[in-house]
Specification:
Strand order of the largest sheet of chain B: 14-13-12-15-16-17-18-19
Shape of chain A: globular
Helix content of chain B: 40-55%
Radius of gyration of chain B: 28 Å
Number of strands of chain B: 21
Number of helices of chain A: 15
Number of helices of chain B: 29
Largest interface: A-B, 26 and 33 residues
Oligomer: heterodimer
Largest sheet of chain B: 8 strands, mixed
């Protein structure tokens, strides 16, 4: 099969996902187009050679609706021959875009793809696209639906992560992100500019370096009331996990991923395509995987999908030098590290979504870029990126330097 | 017409009046459906008719659908070689067409003009199809009748309102507003029903018909267009994909799922009918409602619930097992011996039933204490508006609290509820019988002592019987009547008539250790204690039981009924059975709690920990010091089978040994007596639902792994081997 390479990866800074966030004024389609054109200018890309642009975006309504990818291609002024594909695998959408592009090339459907994602959470609120998962009674009851935060608390309960454990993890994420930002480690980062070339945002603005156990300790658990009182999702969790006496509610805004705006894009191609474009590959995409997992606890996907991708690529966990495990909630990377015996020293080394935020549709592509940047900086050979996904899914990508 | 009278008055109002012959309460039958359909056709087709009033000639409007229709529809379908689903769906759609015809009342659907106003006039209670008919009418009038109850109780017997009641009420009141009717089956007084928005007007009983007629004659075209048939209709509280509606739906699902522990098919189907119906127009919505209704009626659980909780419960209340030749023996004057919790409770429910009561105890102070309990219960009735102040005073005027046996003079029934000690019981039996008429009946409320033994203290064992109430007496609906060896028919009849006066549900069983209910429930706690001893996670035990539909987990039940009681029963049973007593490592768990002074909720320590207010704070983990948690935990299904079968096999053995004479009593008694998984219809229904062969297979596997107590009794094995079912067998023997 054709080997597939990453030629470059870019990402926007992550803006606070509220009306006072710096990126709030930027439309989703312009953000996506910005990412495409940043990638184009960094690689001096002839866009007419691109087979397809695949973009992940979770909340596909309003300005993010109706095949955002094609809208972005047109907005960016790329050649009309380049189509666009808008995909949604919730939080792994950006990663799935990359994986899908890679596998298209492997399968021989073209040899140059741009993949990435966008989510302007300050402009198109999360969950505003409805969806049957939570409200179709047959589906919600047979899959024991609960909001993600309750599921994350269930993970903490089942696998023994205390409030101190998850808070300590969050403090460390903030510390690492602040350090990485300070040292300028994010080489894939680009500056978001307006139509006049003026800077709108050039850094991740969600990071709170001052975060401490004390400041987090003051926060109330966010999912306690909906779990224990109204409407009582804990009871639903215990229907699925009857060995649990009660759910220990440990997650709050400070140890969960932040709501932010952002976009990312990755240029992917075969070896020959790179030669044609005159580009040197930064990494090879060694393997991709996706999986469905138990939907009530929902966020354990990184464990089975990692087992699956390791088996598929004939690797062991010890063969991986670096890990990016999306910090949807602190319990998710904690479970991953506990299960595989992975040291925190090699996982999320520059912080993650707890500190920097989680622009749903873009994050998957962003963490592949983050792994790539860090592999080069620290001179490591192999990295694995993975995300937990709503509805009980997981996705993973293994990349290696060439 | 025989069921629906039809009359057009001088003003051109057609009055369609429901009057099912030979019944005190209207119920909807196949014939009734055909008649009301024809009556509306006639009224809508007659130009001389300007308006229509649908009412009842009885004191109530209707009690609901004749639930036997379901069985008949199924049987008819089978006989015709058609799938039951097809026949049921057709039957439900027929109701929809009828009610939709009433609702549209001949109007031109495009212009919404030309329909005939239909007023609904209910003189009293309207339940189920009774209210659903009202909801299809254009305005609902209910008489100001203090006994009237308005509601849709379908969910309580395992189905849901399936003649448009679901779709209409949700569109009228929103999901939240309709919930108490649909999901709780709440029956409301007219005032509350009006406040909730289910009915429009409450009028003086004498003005009911005239008010309804007057409205119908003056109603305009616009008055009779339902909101959902008008342009721009929006569902109150928001449809599922509007922000507020989304939250309501997601939250509602979790609430219902948690509350019902996922054990009941009907609330799930109801939820789906609401959700799917809310996304489409009305006529599509009722078709969806019919599909889910059909789905739920095909559920074995629904059929079993209807059978036990409606048909058989009613049959038992109406005297299905009463000796036929004994004339009515209503109780007029009751003597209650012992004024403790049970005695006072029995006295209270008897007073509420209009019976004169003498409440006795060893001294005036003890008797007065019982009287105070009664007064407290009556006061709370007044406070909750279940009773007027005058009615309370009248009830209190009928009770005498005294230590004097002479006061029992003229009593026709005695219920003895003194301390569980054969000597004490013998003494009071003799003292009381010295004062009461020869033909009076003497009953004991013992829960542990053999009736035939206690009967030896009586002057006439034929007129001696067990009447076993459950605690708290005023809440528990089951009464277990126990025949001693010599108990005669009159004593049985008397006990049954007494229970009927109390509006409770009786079962009649024969005398054996722990009778029926306790015999089944005690091993439930015993098996749970055994699992704790084995190191099964206690939360798993509790949740497994709740998911089976038990109101309390067995450990919580142990704490509620108290650990010292469990210890006492354990000790007494050991003494009673001697070397036949089956060893149970769970006994060590009970003993450990007992020795640690953890006697349950009353000591704020037991299987659970409690706060100073007696609220459970969590499982007591100290138990694991002596009984450590096992590394490998069992599957929840195995835990459930163990908890279920310890009860079910006792029920089968009770039947096998003749303690239980009728499986209907076994099923109804289990649900009402100890909250046995109502969705299953009772232990025998549960076996039939799983299939006796499958149950035997589970028994064999459990017996191999956990011991002979799970061996299938011969009776169960025979039923399985013959490919029969318990109900199939019972029906066959009834037919023979």
């Amino acid at each position: 099969m054709t080997d597939v390479y990453i030629y470059d990866a870019v990402r926007s800074p992550r803006g606070k996902g509220k009306a006072d966030g710096s990126l709030h004024e930027v439309t989703a389609v312009r953000m996506a187009a910005n990412a495409l054109n940043e990638l184009k200018s960094r690689t001096n890309l002839d866009d007419s050679l691109v087979e397809d642009v695949i973009l992940g975006c979770v909340t596909g309504v309003g300005e993010q609706g109706a095949c955002l990818a094609r809208s972005a291609v047109l907005y960016a002024g790329w050649d009309q021959s380049v189509p666009g594909l808008h995909i949604n695998r919730f939080c792994a959408s950006g990663m799935e875009a990359v994986n899908l592009a890679a596998n298209q090339i492997r399968g021989g459907a073209g040899d140059i793809y741009v993949a990435g994602g966008v989510e302007m959470m300050s402009r198109v609120p999360m969950s505003s696209d409805g969806g049957a998962l939570a409200v179709d009674p047959y589906l919600a009851m047979s899959s024991y639906f609960a909001p993600q935060g309750v599921s994350a608390d269930l993970i903490a309960t089942k696998y023994g992560f205390s409030r101190d454990d998850v808070d300590a993890y969050a403090v460390e994420s903030q510390k690492r992100a602040a350090k990485a930002r300070g040292e300028g480690r994010f080489t894939s980062l680009f500056t978001v500019r307006d139509q006049n070339g003026l800077t709108i945002l050039d850094h991740d603005e969600f990071i709170r370096p001052e975060t401490s156990m004390q400041t987090l300790g003051a926060l109330k658990p966010s999912f306690k009331d909906m779990g224990e009182v109204m409407p009582g999702f804990d009871k639903v969790m215990m229907l699925r996990y009857p060995e649990v006496e009660r759910v220990n509610h440990v997650h709050h805004a400070g140890n969960s991923s932040g709501i932010v705006d952002g976009a990312a894009a990755v240029l992917i191609g075969s070896k020959e395509a790179g030669e044609r474009l005159g580009l040197k590959p930064r990494a090879r995409i060694r393997a991709t995987a996706r999986i469905g997992s138990e939907p009530a606890i929902m966020l354990t996907g990184p464990v089975p999908v990692t087992e699956k991708i390791l088996a598929a690529s004939g690797m062991k966990i010890g063969d991986i030098d670096l890990f990016e495990v999306n910090e949807a909630f602190a319990a998710v990377p904690l479970l991953f590290m506990q299960h595989f015996g992975v040291d925190h020293g090699v996982a999320n080394v520059n912080g993650g979504a707890i500190a920097m935020g989680h622009p749903l549709g873009a994050t998957g592509a962003m963490i592949i870029g983050a792994a790539l940047d860090e592999m080069e900086r620290a001179d490591k050979a192999t990295a694995l990126a993975t995300l937990c996904v709503a509805g009980g899914m997981g996705a993973a990508t293994i990349i290696e330097r060439v | 017409m025989a069921i629906f009278n039809y009359k057009v008055d001088a003003d051109g109002v057609a009055v369609i009046s429901w009057d099912l012959p030979g019944a005190s309460m209207n119920v909807m039958t196949e014939e009734g459906i055909a008649e009301i359909d024809a009556a509306f056709d006639k009224a809508l087709g007659d130009d001389a008719v300007k308006a229509i009033v649908l009412t009842s000639a009885k004191k109530d409007f209707a009690g609901g659908m004749d639930l036997k229709i379901l069985g008949r529809a199924r049987a008819a379908a089978e006989a015709a070689g058609r799938p039951a689903a097809e026949a049921i769906f057709e039957g439900v759609m027929r109701m929809h067409r009828l009610l939709r015809k009433i609702e549209l009342a001949g109007m031109d659907f495009k212009t919404k003009k030309g329909g005939k106003p239909v007023a609904w006039a209910a003189p009293g209670t309207a339940a189920g199809i009774g209210l659903e008919l009202g909801l299809a009418c254009h305005r609902r009038f209910v008489a100001d009748n203090p006994k009237a109850k308005i509601g849709l109780p379908e969910i309580l017997v395992g189905i849901f309102p399936g003649a448009g009641g679901t779709t209409r009420l949700v569109r009228m009141l929103g999901v939240m507003g309709a919930s108490p009717f649909l999901f709780e089956g709440k029956m409301m007084a007219p005032k509350a029903a009006k406040a909730a928005g289910a009915i429009d007007e409450i009028v003086a009983p004498d003005d009911l018909l005239s008010a309804a007629k007057a409205w119908a004659l003056s109603a305009t075209d616009a008055d009779i267009v339902k909101p959902w048939d008008a342009k721009g209709y929006k569902m109150p509280g928001g449809a599922p994909y509007q922000p507020a509606g989304f939250m309501t739906m997601a939250g509602g699902i979790a609430m219902i799922h948690g509350r019902t522990q996922g054990a009941y098919p009907a609330p799930k189907a109801l939820m789906s009918a609401i959700y799917e119906g809310a996304l489409v127009d009305f006529d599509t919505a009722i078709r969806i409602e019919a599909r889910w209704m059909t789905n739920v009626m095909l559920e074995p659980s629904s059929a079993a619930m209807i059978r036990s909780l409606f048909l058989n419960k009613e049959a038992l209340e109406k005297g299905a097992v009463r000796p036929k030749d004994v004339p009515e023996m209503k109780v007029k004057k009751l003597g209650v011996l012992g004024a403790g919790m049970m005695g006072a409770g029995i006295a209270y429910v008897s007073l509420r039933a209009g019976i004169d009561v003498v409440l006795m105890d060893r001294d005036q102070a003890a008797a007065d204490k019982g009287l105070a309990t009664i007064t407290g219960l009556l006061d709370s009735d007044v406070k909750a508006k279940r009773l007027t102040g005058e009615a309370r005073d009248e009830a209190l005027s009928r009770v005498t609290a005294t230590p004097d046996y002479k006061a029992l003079k003229g009593a026709d029934l005695i219920v003895e509820a003194v301390f569980e000690d054969a000597g004490v019981k013998e003494k009071v039996t003799k003292l009381a019988e010295a004062e009461i008429p020869e033909d009076a009946i003497f009953a004991t409320n013992t829960s542990t002592l053999p009736i035939s033994e206690l009967a030896k203290a009586s002057r006439n064992a034929e007129r001696f019987i067990g009447i076993h109430f459950f605690s708290p007496v005023h809440r528990m609906m089951l009464v277990e009547i126990i025949k001693g060896e010599k108990t005669g028919d009159e004593a049985v009849a008397k006990a049954l008539d007494f229970v009927r006066q109390l509006r409770k549900t009786p079962i009649v069983v024969n005398d054996a250790r722990f009778f029926y209910a306790n015999r089944c429930i005690i091993p439930y706690g015993g098996e749970a204690a055994r699992m704790v001893a084995e190191g099964v996670e206690p939360a798993l035990i509790e949740n497994a039981a709740k998911q089976l539909g038990f109101p309390l987990g067995p450990l919580q039940l142990g704490d509620e009924t108290s650990i010292d009681l469990a210890e006492k029963i354990m000790r007494a049973t050991k003494e009673g059975m001697g070397k036949d007593y089956p060893e149970n490592p769970g006994d060590d768990v009970v003993q450990a709690l007992f020795d640690a002074g953890r006697l349950g909720r009353k000591t704020r320590a037991g299987y659970f920990d409690y706060d100073e207010n007696g609220k459970r704070t969590g499982l007591w983990r100290g138990i694991h010091e002596q009984f450590p948690l096992a590394e490998v935990q069992p599957d929840v299904t195995e835990v459930q089978h163990r908890l279920m079968l310890t009860q079910v096999l006792e029920a089968v053995k009770a039947l096998e040994e003749g303690v239980l004479e009728d499986i209907r009593e076994g099923d109804v008694g289990a649900i009402l007596g100890w909250g046995f998984a109502p969705w299953s219809g009772g232990p025998f229904s549960w076996i039939d639902m799983l299939g006796p062969k499958e149950v035997v297979r589970i028994c064999d596997a459990l017996a191999q792994k956990h011991g002979a107590r799970f061996s299938a009794p011969k009776l169960l094995r025979d039923v399985a081997d013959r490919g029969e079912s318990f109900y199939g067998r019972a029906e066959a023997s009834n037919a023979a």
